[in-house]
Structures are given as C-alpha cells and as structure tokens.
Amino acid sequence: MNYKTAYSIEDFRQIAKKRLPKGLFEFIDRGNDDEVAMRENIAALQNIKLVSRVLNDATVRNQSIELFGKKQLMPIAIGPTGSAGLTWFEGEIELAKAAAASGIPFTLATSSMTSMERVVKEAGGNLWFQLYMWPQRELSHQLVERANRAGFDALIFTVDTPVAPGREYNLRNGFTIPFKFTSQNIIDVASHPRWLFGVICKYLMDSGLPRYANFPEHMQSRITALPMGRSMATNESLHWDDVKKLRDLWPRKLIVKGIQHPEDAKLALQAGADAIIISNHGGRVLDSAPATIDILPEIVKAVKGQMSVLIDGGFRRGSDVVKALALGADAVLLGRATLYGTASGGQSGAQAVIELYRREIDRVLGLIGCRDVADLGLDHIFKKN
Ligand SMILES: Cc1cc2nc3c(=O)[nH]c(=O)nc-3n(C[C@H](O)[C@H](O)[C@H](O)COP(=O)(O)O)c2cc1C
Q1: Cis before residue 290, ω within 30 degrees of 0?
Q2: Alpha carbon of 128 to those of 58, 86, 124, 131: distances in Å?
Q3: Whose CA is nearest to atom 12 of ligand 1?
Q4: Which one of 107, 158, 260, 284 would you pick to mutate in the ligand 1 pocket, going by the greatest count of ligand atoms within 8 A of its CB?
Q5: Domain positions in the chain
Q6: From CA 133, how far away is CA 274, in angstroms rounded?
C-alpha cells in the first residue's frame, strides 16, 4: 500500500509504521504511561453522535472559515510536532507546503530540524510558530523576536509540559535524547533502508545529522549529542506572567496551548491571549487528563465571544472535526494524522491526508443537511435522555 491507495488515517498510519524504524514510529504514534488519555481522546469523539436534518438542500457546502482575520479553506490547522523533520527529509518544509497548498495554517515547533527562516522562505502560507519557554527565559524571548522578524502570523505558547512525561516505550526502544545506540536500534534502522537513505543519508549529505535548527547557536547540538529535545521542553516555573511578557513581546496573534480548565481559559484571556488550544498534548503528557472534546463545552461557555477556542487530540475523521465545531470550537488542530501523511509521502502524503479530511468533512455536512460549518451548533449534537 502507498499513500495513493490510503483511504483512512489508519491506512496512512500503517504506511508510516512500515516506513519508519520502530523507535521513531512509536515516538510519534504512542502516548504516555498506559496511554489512556490518548485512547480516550479518540473514544470520546467516537461516542458523540450527530443529528441529521433531512430534505434541507445541502447541494452547496462550505467548510472555509475566517480565523484571526484570515480566510482558511478548511476548519483545521497543522499543530506543532517536533519530529516532522525525522519522518521525511526536511519534513517540516514538506508539511508546511502541503498546508499552504491546502489553504490551512501550519505550525512550526520550537524543536524542529528546519530553521524558521527557511520554512517561511520555502513554504510560505499562513504560518504559526510554537514556543516552549526555557527556564532561561531570555533565550525563549530571543526566539520570539526571531519568529517576529521572520514574519510568523501567530505565536503558540505550549504550557502543558512543566515536567518531563514518562514514556516507557522510548526507554525500551533506546529512543532517548541523547540517542542511545544499541544493537536493537541499529538493527531497527538497518532494516528500514528506505528511511535510512531517504532521510538520514540525505541530511548527512546536505548539512550533517539533523539539529535543532531553531535553538540558540550554543544549544544547537545534533540529535545524537547533548541531552535536550524533550528535556528542553520542560520548565516547572511557568507562570501567567510568562503569558503577559509574551503579550508585550509579540505583536500578532498569541495562542496558549494546553488549556484544560475554564478558569485557566479566563486567565489566558486576562493575560492578553487572543486564543487558546484545548489540548492534552495528544495524551502524551498527563495520562489521567480528560478527553479534550469532553472539556470543550465548559471552556467555550467560559470565554465565548471573547477569544477563539481551538482544540486538538484524537481527531482522525472529518466527522470528529464537525463535532468539535458543533460544540463551539473555532477550529481543530491535527498532530499525528499529518505526521503519518508526511512519513508516507512527504508533501504529497501530507496533502493527501488534508484532502481526506476535506472530503470527509464535506460528506458529513451533506449527510447531516448542513450547508456551512458556520451553521453548526448544539442542535447537531445528539443528546441521550
Ligand atoms: C510526535 C509528536 C511531537 C509533538 N511535538 C510537540 C511540540 O513540539 N510542541 C507542542 O506544543 N506539541 C507537540 N505535540 C502535540 C501536538 O501538537 C498535538 O497537541 C497532539 O498531537 C494532538 O493530538 P493528535 O496527535 O491525536 O492529533 C507533539 C505530538 C506528537 C505526536
């Protein structure tokens, strides 16, 4: 199977599983601890049922939205995933190009392998930058200034990883930072020659082993060297003052990612954020976190009309996106799904995934008799007595 004959996100996932070494695939695909939160994100979405209204002439259907004053062709955006550049040679550029071609925003993660300036230059489109606030705050502030100079449209501040998550499978696979060479993972890599030659060897011939290209110069180590990556994403001292400081530094849209409580949504608003992303990091941090779709309605109620509310976690079908919009979200971010697409076929694979969501959203709108995503509301959600 290749991405041209993939008909569902699960198909793309299976292709990615085949193409990538096990350690890398599991790093992308799996969750945290017992992976309950990751499974429940998906299950909670599946448990919500939509109400169809028939004979409502839905011949013409619109799924474009306006977000932050800009039109986008679909109600989805690509969320930040630090490892896109390992799934394909310069995977971040491939994914950003796919997003630009599909008319949706792309988010570049702090810990990506491609420099933000290159992504802006080579992909263009509606670009957001994701920030982790390092304990040495001035380094993160410098990164914000760099993203501002590069011209990113929005800044996403991720706040849900104050301490390092426990991912046992990474330890078992030796997929740690610094990367540990074991006979097991050497065999793993050697048995995926397409990835070894198509990704790693290309980096070696181009600019050497992948680096965290957006880290300050003195921290720009290879992925096999100094301890960084995830450990560099954590900061136990994060505080609402950090959001206020970013509000002072950042002139365009400011989004706080990782909100799970209505009161925190209000605090984000007070601190000057334009939007929040309801997120449990795709079930990759606190395994006892609730499914994001279950906490959406309360949070929407708390800040309705005052800021944009985005959501991610477990969205694998167009119907999932429709459900979130009906429950009050302004847009949905995708994490793993478009990584599977990038791993399957670079830009074309990622674009095929986005197109799959477009078709599915369109089909569901037709089936429930809804002509425009702007008309989605609680009437479309089935309530059990
Ligand atoms: C491999 C991987 C890497 C990620 N890296 C980041 C990151 O660097 N910054 C961040 O804010 N979120 C990161 N996330 C979380 C995603 O932005 C998003 O919240 C999550 O993937 C959504 O869930 P889904 O994968 O079920 O769509 C990552 C997720 C994955 C799967």
Answers
A1: no
A2: 33, 20, 11, 10
A3: 80
A4: 284
A5: 3-50+71-360
A6: 18
- Backbone φ/ψ region at 103: left (φ over 0), alpha (ψ -120 to 50), beta: left
Protein residue closest via CA to atom 14 of ligand 1: 81
Averaged pLDDT, 196-216:
92
Q: Is 64 exposed, middle or buried (0-12, 13-18, 19+ CB in 10 A)?
A: middle
Mean pLDDT rounded to a whole number for the chain: 94
Count the alpha carbons within 13 Å of 29 in the hemisphere toward its beta carbon.
21
Nearest residue to 257 (alpha-carbon basis) of 227, 273, 229, 278: 278
Cα separation, 367 vs 52, whole angstroms: 7
Q: Could you read off the pLDDT of 160-169 as tens digits, one per residue?
A: 999 988 889 9
User: What is the pLDDT, as a whole number, of residue 384?
Assistant: 86
Residue with tokens 């180590």: 221
CATH topology assigned to domain 3-50+71-360: TIM Barrel (3.20.20)
